[in-house]
Design brief:
The chain contains nine helices and no strands. The chain has 199 residues and is mainly α. The longest helix has 33 residues, at 151-183. It starts with a helix and ends in a 5-residue tail after the last helix. The model is unreliable at 187-199 (pLDDT under 50).
Length: 199
């Protein structure tokens, strides 16, 4: 039991820290800090993907009773969002890091709303956060509590998890929309509205 928990804790911790760092990116107003934190997030996301893949891969080759096999079984729920993070999030984070690097010659430059909108995109923060959330049942099971054993607990737990994912997704979408609106150039007023009145 302890060995299984020892395997799962680093994976869950990496995804949790990645989710926290991703959540704070849009609030950064300095380009240098945005680039630095984006670099951290890129390393954390790559590490999380590598650790998750390593545990799942090791579980495929184990005898079925080893701690790594039980840990891999617990991480099955996290495999989906981790795959989305590997395919979508890492690419977006890398582009955001490169975009922030364009301001390296002027590190004190305030972060443009376009970069902050890119940092607030749901595919940057949502997959790491959902992956971190998906590791919670595995940690609970490794600690000795089987949520699947009691149907009266399993249903509410699934509902709470689904509502939490939906709430996180809606929050990311609203925040991204707000920053994207700020990044849009001001629309010029129509000639009829700004031109002089002719009598």
């Amino acid at each position: 039991m302890e060995s299984q928990l020892t395997i799962l804790l680093p994976v869950a911790a990496i995804w949790l820290v990645a989710g926290v760092v991703a959540d704070g990116l849009p609030r950064l107003r300095n380009t240098r800090m945005l680039r630095r934190r984006t670099g951290w997030l890129l390393v954390l996301a790559l590490t999380g993907v590598a650790l998750t893949a390593a545990v799942l891969g090791a579980g495929l080759f184990s005898a079925g009773t080893a701690p790594v096999d039980r840990a891999a079984g617990g991480l099955t729920l996290a495999a989906g969002p981790a795959f989305v993070a590997a395919v979508c999030s890492v690419r977006r984070i890398r582009r955001l890091w490169a975009g922030a690097g364009a301001f390296a010659s002027a590190p004190a430059t305030p972060a443009p709303h376009g970069l902050r909108a890119a940092a607030a995109h749901p595919l940057v923060g949502l997959p790491p956060q959902v992956t971190a959330l998906a590791t919670v049942p595995a940690l609970i099971a490794a600690a000795g509590t089987d949520l699947g054993a009691d149907p009266g607990v399993t249903g509410p737990a699934i509902t709470v998890g689904a509502l939490a994912v939906a709430a996180i997704g809606v929050r990311h979408a609203l925040r991204h929309s707000r920053f994207a609106e700020r990044a849009q150039p001001d629309r010029p007023r129509s000639a009829g509205a700004t031109g002089p009145l002719h009598v």
